[in-house]
Each structure stands twice: as structure tokens, then as C-alpha cells.
């Protein structure tokens, strides 16, 4: 299974006002290929969601083995040294909370002082939640929404494994479905995938429907059109370019199926749905990408090459 996103990003929330109560989330970030280790005394409450890769996690001199998918929990005042195996990378999504949230997080059973490394039993649900979170951040939704979606990611890491999650065929279909949510341009030949899996297309379609509640082709169409709606609101791309980016080379066809899905044409949707959030409640109008991810620095933090 590939990485969720090609580029890393981070998003700082602590300096922006909320419509609702501040829940203490200071920053979120994502590394598709984190190559370095960290060595520091933690001043905050952190959750590091390791989505792929292996490594180590040393807490106050005690070393734990790390193998994705899992969550590393960091508490204020504790000393941590962790990262991927030497010469390797891992994929990580992190959440940093103000230490004043410690009691609330313990009360919510998000934290257990006896557990430093927590296994993730439903990585597909966690990945879905991260994808939704990133899309919200990219469309400059209010910080309140970003906080709620971030908490959904953490909650998903606490949930038990779904039925049949360990079934090899189910796992492969979930990998395909996850890929369709992040790679919208190319048309997938589901019949060929079924053949590669040594099952008939009717069997493939039946199992897919049981898992996702719709046919494979409708699933792909839905996520393409959802992404089209997002791009219409969050970019200055022309309707034609939005369609092309999502694999619809025929503008008339794109407009027709978008109308069938949403109830109006792409141009009309852009005009109707345009909305403005006051700048004091927005993020900084962009999600910050870090091409050279090792350049991110923190106070009292030592970055070491793995």
C-alpha cells in the first residue's frame, strides 16, 4: 500500500480564533517519508500516528519496537528518542496538544500512562479520516472543523478491528478503495483487477458492495465528483481543467454527470456554493508544505539523521 499523500505538510492552529471552545490543538502535520529521529523532552501532549514503516521508540530509557500501523503517545515532561530504522523512512501523521489538555485527554480515555505504543486495528478508517482532515484544511475550513476532524482521527485509532479486516481479499479491496480516494485521474479497470485476484467480476462486485454499499464504478465516480466539487470551491481552475484533472476529457460528459450527481452544473455549483469565512476564523489560507521535511525545527528538539 502506498503513502496517502506525496508531499508532507503542517498546519498551525494555536494563533487562530474559534467559533466554539478551543480544544487545545496546537499543530498537525504529515510526513510521507520521515527520515530522521527525534530526541527531546516533551513539553506538550502528542500523538504520532505511524501509518507505514518500522523503527524504535525510547521513553525515559525504555525502548519499544515500532511497527506500523500504530500510535506513539508523548506526555509532558517525559524524555523521548524515536524514529525509523537506520537508513529507512516511515509515514507519520502527528497531532500536538497544549499540556493543559492533559486531564481532558485522560478523562476521554485517549491516554493510558501504561501504554506508550498503541496498535491501530482499523488503518483504513484512520486513513479515511486523515484524507477528510487534509481536504478540510486545504479548503480553509474554520479551525473548529479542523480540530473536530483531528479528534476523529485519534478516535479511529482507538476503535476495534472491523469484522473480516484480516481477510486477505478484503484487505486488498480496501487498499484499492483507499487508492481511489487519493488518485482520481486514472480510470480503473475493475474487471482486470477481479481477474488478477482470480475471482469473477460478479463476485468482486458483490464483495465490494457488501464492504462499501455501492458498486466499484459508482464508488470511483462518487469520489471523483466529490473531489471535483472541492476543486471548484478551493481553486481557480476552470471547469474544463477541473474535469481534465479528474480524468474527464469530455467537458460535456463531465458537466452532465456532475449535474446528475449534485443537481446543477459545475459553473452553477461554484457560483451557488461560494462562501467566505472571516479571516480571524480561518487558517492562513494555505496548508504549509515542506519539500525538505527535515528542515522543520522545534525548540528543545534535536533532529538526527536515521
Automatic annotation (TrEMBL):
GO terms for MF: DNA-binding transcription factor activity; sequence-specific DNA binding
One Pfam family assigned to this protein is: HTH_18
Could you tell me the superkingdom of the organism this chain comes from? Bacteria
Q: Which UniProt keywords apply?
A: Activator, DNA-binding, Transcription, Transcription regulation
Sequence ranges assigned to domain HTH araC/xylS-type in this UniProt record: 174-272
Kindly indicate whether the keyword Transcription belongs to this entry. Answer: yes
Question: Which protein are we looking at?
Answer: AraC family transcriptional regulator
Amino acid at each position: 500500500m502506498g503513502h496517502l499523500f506525496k508531499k508532507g505538510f503542517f498546519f498551525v492552529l494555536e494563533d487562530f480564533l474559534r467559533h466554539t471552545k478551543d480544544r487545545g490543538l496546537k499543530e498537525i502535520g504529515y510526513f510521507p517519508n520521515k527520515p530522521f529521529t527525534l530526541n527531546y523532552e516533551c513539553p506538550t501532549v502528542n500523538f504520532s500516528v505511524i501509518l507505514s514503516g518500522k523503527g524504535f521508540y525510547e521513553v525515559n530509557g525504555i525502548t519499544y519496537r515500532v511497527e506500523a500501523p500504530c500510535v506513539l503517545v508523548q506526555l509532558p515532561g517525559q524524555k523521548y528518542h524515536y524514529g525509523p530504522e537506520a537508513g529507512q523512512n516511515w509515514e507519520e501523521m502527528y497531532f500536538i496538544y497544549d499540556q493543559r489538555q492533559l486531564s481532558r485527554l485522560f478523562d476521554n480515555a485517549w491516554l493510558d500512562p501504561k501504554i506508550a505504543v498503541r496498535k491501530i486495528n482499523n488503518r483504513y478508517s484512520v486513513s479515511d479520516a486523515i484524507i477528510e482532515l487534509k481536504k478540510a484544511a486545504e479548503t480553509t475550513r474554520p479551525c473548529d472543523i479542523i480540530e473536530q476532524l483531528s479528534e476523529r482521527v485519534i478516535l479511529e485509532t482507538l476503535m476495534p478491528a472491523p469484522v473480516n479486516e484480516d481477510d486477505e481479499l478484503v484487505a486488498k479491496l480496501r487498499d484499492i478503495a483507499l487508492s481511489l480516494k487519493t488518485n482520481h485521474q486514472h480510470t480503473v479497470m475493475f474487471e482486470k483487477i477481479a481477474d488478477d485476484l482470480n475471482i469473477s467480476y460478479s463476485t468482486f462486485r458483490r464483495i465490494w458492495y457488501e464492504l462499501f454499499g455501492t458498486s466499484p464504478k459508482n464508488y470511483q465516480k462518487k469520489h471523483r465528483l466529490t473531489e471535483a466539487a472541492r476543486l471548484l470551491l478551493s481553486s481557480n481552475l476552470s471547469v474544463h481543467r477541473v474535469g481534465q484533472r479528474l480524468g474527464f476529457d469530455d467537458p460535456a460528459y463531465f458537466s452532465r454527470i456532475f449535474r446528475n450527481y449534485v443537481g446543477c452544473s459545475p459553473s452553477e455549483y461554484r457560483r451557488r456554493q461560494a462562501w467566505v469565512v472571516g479571516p480571524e476564523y480561518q487558517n492562513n489560507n494555505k496548508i504549509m508544505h515542506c519539500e525538505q521535511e527535515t528542515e522543520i525545527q522545534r525548540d528543545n528538539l534535536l533532529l538526527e539523521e536515521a
